[in-house]
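Below is a typical protein record.
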Amino acid sequence: MDEKLLSRLRNHLIRLRNAGELRDAGIGNKTNFEVNMEIRSDQIKWINQLECNALEQQFFDAVQDFSNYLNRTCFTGIKNWEFHYANYRKGSFFKRHFDRFKNDNGRKFSIVCYLNKKWVLGNGGELVLHLDKEVVVEPKFGTVVVFNSALVEHEVKIAHKNRISITGWLK
């Protein structure tokens, strides 16, 4: 991702957070949706593809290019996606989970794009991918992580300072 685009998205997310536009995230979907702070305590704001601003459209253009590449080279059949801004306040976390719903197997790939500048070891908020061997990803600015939504169990460790990202799923 282009560094200037990421910086502008970072600033936009901070403005949204400061304006109180983020809401407590939930787990589940449709009829089994709930907010459960013992499992997940971040705050989010969904990015509506039909009502996005020019900055978000640039992000979606990059996602479209990546989806086209995956479809062309890996025959993934990606047709759409969903993304949200995420903010993990100090003390926030997301316990170990998969990114597929029990009643909807549409999510193929999970994507996390980190927007944290000057992030240092000890700030917490690491993404832990539970593979044969645990893989720990520090949420540093510009790092993008892509993984299989149905096969990779993962968690977000407790953040010791605000941790921000754009998170989404290719479907």
Summary: The radius of gyration is 15 Å. The domain at 3-170 is CATH 2.60.120.620 (Jelly Rolls). The first helix runs from residue 3 to 18.
